[in-house]
Amino acid sequence: MDKQRHVLLVLPHPDDESHISGTLARYVQQGTPVTYVCLTLGEMGRNMGKPIIANRLTLPEIRKRELEQSCRSIGIQDLRMWGYHDKTVEFEDRDALAGRIADLIRELKTSLVITFYPGFSVHPDHEACGEAVIRAVESFPAAERPTVHCVAFSAGCEEILGPPDVVNDVSDFMKQKMGSFHAHRSQFQLMVGDRSFDDPQWKAWWGTERFWTYRFS
């Protein structure tokens, strides 16, 4: 992984970061500042824990605490929760959201932005988030744009996008990654259970993380 001046992560939901938390932990270990903007609190999530630990009224605060714990596990110290409503990001003012992201890129002097790949990330909130990031970065002169690494996972995405540009081995950061997944108990308890970070099957599943570099026209 190339050394970065500053990494800005923009994702819509608490727990989205868990799937790429090994990469984030590597940047933190390198001494790179990482800022995480989480657009919503995931208050419309259907999972309430297994066994149930939440209801529709208590879920937002629970997910907020889970997100904070996940960031502590990864080592992220700059977490910003922007308070948009879950499952409605696509209906936000596109220019306003992109402008807010662009302002933050300027403030932080970001060299790398990580988000979802528009068109290849399934959930409407994921798509709207990625589109806002791309719109924000496009507003900069070409020579001043940060690199954008995107997560893509829709069926057949590799057939269209080609193989990922970046494949990070994060097997040395499974403790932080497992900590992130375990933090989001309301969402992942059934999947993660009591697995430990040195579980070989877990490393086989989650020991690499893939990104596509967005290429601006």
Fourth-level CATH superfamily: LmbE-like
Structural class: alpha/beta
> Which geometry do the CA atoms define?
globular
Number of helices: 8
| Overall pLDDT metric | 95
Could you spell the SSE succession in H and E letters?
EHEHEHEHEHEHHHE
CATH topology: Rossmann fold
Record the strand order, biggest sheet.
Answer: 3-2-1-4-5-7-6
Strand content: 15-25%
CATH architectural arrangement:
3-Layer(aba) Sandwich
The first-level CATH class name: Alpha Beta
Q: Helix proportion of residues, in percent?
A: 25-40%
- Count of beta strands: 7
Alpha-carbon distance between the two ends: 25 Å
The total tally of domains equals 1
Q: Biggest sheet, open or closed, and with what strands and sense?
A: 7 strands, mixed
Low-confidence blocks of residues: none
Radius of gyration, taken over Cα atoms and rounded to an integer in Å: 17 Å
What does this structure look like?
This protein has 217 residues and is of the alpha/beta class. The chain has a single domain (7-213), classed as 3-Layer(aba) Sandwich (Rossmann fold). Helix content is 40%, strand content 18%. The protein has eight helices and seven strands, in the order E-H-E-H-E-H-E-H-E-H-E-H-H-H-E. It has helices spanning 21-30, 59-74, 94-108, 124-138, 157-161, 174-183, 185-192, 200-206, and strands spanning 7-11, 34-40, 78-84, 112-116, 147-151, 166-169, 208-213. Strands 3-2-1-4-5-7-6 form a seven-stranded mixed sheet, with helices on both faces. The longest helix has 16 residues, at 59-74. The radius of gyration is 17 Å and the shape is globular. The two termini are 25 Å apart. The relative contact order is 0.20. The mean pLDDT is 95.
